[in-house]
Amino acid sequence: MMGGVLTITLLLCNLLLLLHPSLSHPLCTDSRAPITLKTPLNFCPYNGSVCCNSTEDLELRNQFQAMNISHQGCASLLKSILCARCDQFSAQLFRGDSISQPVPVLCNSTFPLNTSQSSLASSGFCSEVWDTCQNVSILNSPFAPSLQGQSGVTVGSNVTKLTELWQSKTDFCNAFGGASTDGSLCFDGGPVVLNKTGTSTPTSGLCLEKIGNGSYLTMVAHPDGSNRAFFSDQPGKIWLATVPKEGAGKLELDEANPFLDLTDEVHFDAEFGMMGMAFHPNFVQNGRFFASFNCDKITWPRCTGRCSCNSDANCDPSKLQSDNNASPCQFHTVIAEFTANGTSSQPSLATVAKPSEVRRIFTMGLPFTSHHAGQILFGPDGYLYFMMGDGGGSGDPYNFAQNKKSVLGKIMRLDINNIASAAEISNLGLWGNYSIPKDNPFNEDEELLPEIWAMGLRNPWRCSFDSERPSYFMCADTGQDEYEEVDIITKDGNYGWRVYEGMNLYTPKQSPGGNTSANSINAIFPVMGYYHDINKNEGSASITGGYFYRSMADPCMYGRYVFGDLYAHAIWAGTENPENSGNFTMNQIPFSCAHDSPIQCNSVPGSSVPALGYIFSFGEDNNKDIFILTSSGVYRVVRPSRCNYSCSKENATASSNPSPAPSSPSSQASWLNDLSKNFLLLFSSLLFLVLFSI
Fold this sequence. Notes:
Structural class: alpha+beta
Radius of gyration: 27 Å
Largest sheet: 5 strands, mixed
Helix content: 10-25%
Mean pLDDT: 87
Number of helices: 11
Shape: globular
Strand order of the largest sheet: 29-5-32-31-30
C-alpha cells in the first residue's frame, strides 16, 4: 500500500514537471491580469497589483475561519497559503488551476531553486508547514489526498491532521512541494519576489539586409516549418515566397503569380485594404486559411453585413454624419475563409489557392472610415484572434471602445473549428460563421458580447504571441493626440481608451455616445510607449507592433521586444527586468544596412541611415528571424558584425548554435527537445517506481 501511494505521488509530481507552463508575467489563475485595488483588502495582506477583489477576500476569510485552527503558528501559515490566490503571480503558484489544485506549490528543499525567484524564498517552506501543522486539527483541510487526485480520505471526513492524511513529511512535500524552476514559481509564505535579471548585454545597433523591393502589409511563416512565407499587400494580393538564408540572396517571390488575388473584392484606400491573413495551425493537413479585408457595399454585392452602429450598441446610424463622403457602414470589415485544397496533391505543396470563398466568417459595417485595425492571427490555444479599432471619428465620439455591447475597440477571440448552427448564430447575434470559446469572458460577465476577449483599444496595429512564452500577447495601440503604447493583452483586460490615452486621462471634444468614468473601470496601463514629439518632422506618430526577438542571428537582441513607428524615424527594443515581471524599459536602437546587403539600401539624404520609408509591419519566419515590412521593401535583422556593430555573444553563438534546417522551425525543435527531456524523466521515474514496487 505504501509503495502504491508513493508511486502515485511521484508520478503526479513528474507529470507536473512534464506539463507545466512557461513562466509568465503577473497573471491570475483565471487568466486575467491583476487589478489595482482602490481600497485595501481586509483579510489577505496583499497590496498593489492583486488577484483578489473584496468579495474573494471575504470568501477566503470565511474559508479560513471554517478550518477552526487553534494553533496560532499553523493558523498563520494556513492563512498565508489561502491568501496566495491574491498574489499577482497566482497563475504560476497554482500552476494555472486553483480549482483542481487548492493550494499553491510550496517551496520544497528537496528541489533546488533556480535564479528566477528571489533568493529570499525559503526552500524549506513545505517542511515548515509540516513541522508546524502536522498534529494540528484542520477542518475541511485543503491538504486531503483526494484533492491531489489520489485515493485516501475525502474532504469532509473526520480526519483533520496532516499525520492522519499523509504517511510522512516526504509524502506530503512530494505532493504539495515544488521549486522555482524555468517553468514555474513556488510559494514561500509571502508575496512572490523576483530576482533582478542583471545587466543585459548591450546592443550597439540593429543590422539590416534588404532582400526585397516590394511593399507588403503582412508576413506569415508557412505552417509546414520550411523556409517559405506568405506576404500580402494592402490592395489585396497574397504571394508565396522562399526566404533565402542570411546573406544568400533576394526574396524569391513572383509578383506576376500571386497565391491569391482578391483585388476585385477588396476596397483599397489610405486606411482600407487587406489588413491581415492567417493560416490554420493544421494548414498542412486541411488547407484552410483566412483573409481579413475591407469592402465597399456600393461596388461589391457580397459586401453586406450588420452595421456596428446599432441599437444594441446604443447607436443610431441615421444620426451619423458622412465621413470622407462615405455614408455610415458603407464600408465593411470582412474575414473570409479560403482553401488550398484541390490545387495540388497536398496543401503544403500548393502554390496557388482557389479564388472563391469557402465561407464568410465575419462581416460588419464600419461607422467611419478609419481605425478598424483588422489583423487576424491564431493563438497558441488554436483560436482566431481578431483585432478591431474603435471605428474612427476623432476621440471615439460614441465611446465604442468602452461599450461592452460593441465589438469596436476590442480584441475578439473566435472558434472557427466549430461553426455554430444558423439558430445559434441568430440567437447569439453573431457576425458570421464561427462559435464562441467556452472560456471567453462573457461567461462571467453577461454584459459583454460573447466575442470579446479584451477591450478599451483605439486602433491595435500589429500584435504577436511570444513563441517562447505564449502568455505574452503583445499589442501596439495607436494613440490619439499624445501617446503610442504597447500592451500585454490578457483575458477580460480593459486597456483604458477612451477614458485614458496611455496613462493620461483623456477628455473627448464631443461625446454623443456618453462617457465612462475612470472609477468605473480597472484600466491596464501600457508596459511601454512614447509621446508624439518623437516625430518632430512629421508632427505625429503611429506605432507599429513587432515581436520578441528569438533568433540567434543577433544574440544581443535575444528576448527583447522589437517595435517601431510608421514614420520610420525610430526602432525600439523593450527589455524586461526582472524577467517575467511585466516591467519593461525601452531604448531607441540605431540601425544600419549591411554593406553586402543583397539589395543595396538607399539612405536618408545627408545621412547614412537607411531610408526605410514607412514601417508598415514586422514579420517572423520559421527560423525566428525578424523582418521589417516597409514602403521601400523587405528588410531582415542580421548579424551585427555585418554593420560593424559589436556584440560579445555573436561569435560564441555562431560556433555553438548552427542555424536550423529550413524544414525544421526552431520553435518546434526547441519544444520537442524540451518535451523529449521531460518524457525521459517521466519514463525513468516510472521504471524506478515499477522496480521499487516489485
